[in-house]
Amino acid sequence: MTFNVSVLVSGYCESYHKLAVKAFPWKKHQFPAAFGLLKHPSGNAILFDTGYAPRVSEGMKSFPFPLYASSLPITQSRKTAKDLLEAKGISHRDVDLIILSHFHPDHIGGLKDFPDARILCSRDAWKSVKGRQGFKALFKGYLPKLIPDDFESRLEFYEDLSISNLNGFSDTLEIRRLTFEGDDLHLASLPGHVPGQIGLIENSGEKINFFIADAVWHKRAISEGLLPHPLAMLIHDDRNAYKSTITKLHKIYLNSPSVHFIPTHHPGSK
Ligand SMILES: [Zn+2]
Predict the structure, then answer these.
(1) CA 120 to each of CA 34, 100, 234, 265: distance values in angstroms, whole numbers, following the listed order
(2) What's the angle, vertex CA 11, arms to CA 208 and CA 217, rounded to 5?
(3) Model pTM?
(4) How far is the CA of 215 from the centre of ligand 1 (A)?
(5) Least enclosed by CB within 10 Å: which of 73, 161, 194, 259?
(6) Strand-pair category, 4-16 with 74-76
(7) Maximum CA extent, the chain
(8) DSSP bridge pairs for 48
(9) How many angstroms is it from 104 CA to the middle of ligand 1?
(10) In terms of DSSP bridges, do strands 208-213 and 259-263 run parallel, antiparallel, or are they unpaired?
(11) Nearest-5° Cα angle at 49, 210 to 82
(12) What is the pLDDT of residues 204-229, one digit of tens each?
């Protein structure tokens, strides 16, 4: 095993369980905002997303963002991504690369705590939010205050990586290779929820870890091909692409039992 992989949670948002999967009851549910830590033997680390931080709730106090805050109340745990890493003996300076699945606040909240890290995202995802302010940002679920000033100077794009053949994945998803400290990881295109959403595949051990961000909100969407409630479908950028991504993940689930799917909002087994 090359990478030591941890799944960490820095906060929750509250919404109805039925919105995640239509078959679930209309009950309030706390959805964790998970992110991934991949520690390489060199000592350098990668983060896949950055979870919540207090600046997310702070940033939502100014108009028009309270509209967002009231529709998805956030419970910020006391520990941010930076704190959770420090508890593991990892300094924010050890994080060499942050992969952003997309630009919703629960994925970019901790970004400003890692000023030295390179950042990788899809060009489509960045293009869809770049420069947006006020209602134009709100409609995209984007909080511009979470983006560091020097963001673009640290940015690398998924689309500039080469297409890769990864057994069990490449026949269904677009896969690109990311080399880190001489070792390979893979990124997958997971369109639908937002333009240009990407996931991360780590297969250096027996188990294959697949961070799939918001491609689904619950693992039963993958194991049983279940869709969210129609109301929740309205918020996805491209509903046909969203459904197609779920179908593809379901196929991978059926064909590759060693794949461990990690959705941001359902990282555990319950
Ligand atoms: Zn999202």
Answers:
(1) 18, 6, 28, 21
(2) 50
(3) 0.94
(4) 8
(5) 73
(6) antiparallel
(7) 48
(8) 36, 99
(9) 5
(10) parallel
(11) 125
(12) 888 999 999 999 988 889 998 888 88
